[in-house]
Amino acid sequence: MTRLTITLSLGIAACLALATMATVPEGVSAARAIAAADSPARIADLALERQFNAAVARREIEEALAVGDLELARSFVELAAERDVALSPALIGKIESAEQDAAKASSRAASFARGFITGKPEDVASAAGMLTGDLFLFGDVRDVVRESWHGLRGEEVDKLVLGLAGTGIAVTAGVYASAGLAAPARAGLTVAKAAKRGGHMGLPLLRLLKLEKREKLVDFVSDLGRVQQRTSLRGALDGLKIAEHPKDVARLASLAAVKGGKTRAIVKLLGRGAIFLTTSVFTLASWMFWALLNLWALCAACKRTAERITLRHCERRRMRKLRLENQRLAAAVQAA
Asked: What's residue 334's pLDDT?
């Protein structure tokens, strides 16, 4: 066994070690991602490990404060606390100061009234007003009358809002009859109407909803209502922006059930990556395959290198023993 052969074996093992260092961590991440495919909360956690840090949290909070979205800023604060990401006291103080200013009674009362009358959520208080209006049937009756008036005048009628309002009247009766058991569906209908009017629904989802039967529509708004209850009205509206199918809202409800108020921050940061794997299963499986292949090749190369080094060592010992034996024989011959 030559020294060159051993050197080549060590070189191959070193190259495979570098390849393994690059592929095995990705392979492990891929395995974790595939295992989490059915859990939106675990998918979000895996994505946040790579995409969320103190710099990202500070940037998102400052952007939210700049547009007056205090709820989103607070959502990022909660997410940072959950993931042990430190935020500066000055930034926290800035959020608390803005929240105190927004909590003035006169401002909140006026906003509540606008939401109750117009059905357009502009902030937390107006969203509460809109939900209250729908809970007392005022909002649904208002929307039915508005869309019917549009039809009488020959204007375009929003059939989805009209259908949601009609369903809302029936669901609201169910809320009172069931002592609140149908409350998620009632809240979801309010969110759906607000999303349609505010342009928060994408065209694929709108097309599907127009084709759904009433039973499926009730399931959809029930999931949407659970998102609203665990986050907020604006949180549900943000979720609808990334939804392309009614089943996506069911996954959002699953995420919101675990993450609560942090859901808005997660959806803002990850988009559809909050509820679905952004990398294809084929790609993830490929990472796992190459990681296992490199690991196996590294083990085989290390084994072969160790065998060659051992064989080289044994040969050298045998040659040394043979040389010593020859020297003793030569010495014995000379002595004789």
From this structure: 77
Angle 326-330-331 from CA coordinates, rounded to 5°: 120
Rounded CA separation 29/253 (Å) = 25
- For the record, the structure tokens of 24 come out as 């095995």
Nearest to 1 by CA among 296, 326, 300, 319: 319
pLDDT at 97 over 70: yes
Instruction: Report which secondary-structure segment, H or E, holds 45.
Output: helix 40-51
- Please give the angle made by the CA atoms of 41, 45 and 51, to the nearest 5 degrees: 135
Q: For residues 130 and 121, is the Cβ–Cβ distance under 8 A?
A: yes
DSSP of 267-302: HHHHGGGGTS-SS-HHHHHHHHHHHHHHHHHHHHHH
Local confidence band at 176 (pLDDT 50, 70, 90 cut-offs): very low
271 with 231: CB under 8 angstroms? no
CA distance 332 to 206: 103
What CA–CA distance (Å, rounded) separates 182 from 232? 18
What is the spatial distance between Cα 222 and Cα 249, in angstroms, rounded to a whole number?
A: 9
Looking at residues 5-19, what average pLDDT do you find?
A: 66
Share of the chain above pLDDT 90, in %: 18
pTM above 0.90, yes or no: no
Whether residue 305 contacts residue 9, with contact meaning beta carbons closer than 8 Å, is answered with: yes
Name the average pLDDT for the chain: 76
Residue 115 and residue 92: Cα distance in Å, rounded? 29
Per domain, the residue ranges of the chain are: 42-276
Q: What mean pLDDT comes out for the span 207-223? A: 73
HSE value, Cβ hemisphere, 13 Å, CA-based, for 18: 5
For residue 222, what pLDDT is reported?
Answer: 84
Torsion angles phi and psi, residue 186, rounded to 5: -65, -45
Helix (H, G, I), strand (E, B) or coil at 181: coil
Tokens (6 digits) for 68 = 């007056």
d(CA 26, CA 43): 15
- In tens, the pLDDT along 225-241 reads 889 889 888 888 888 88
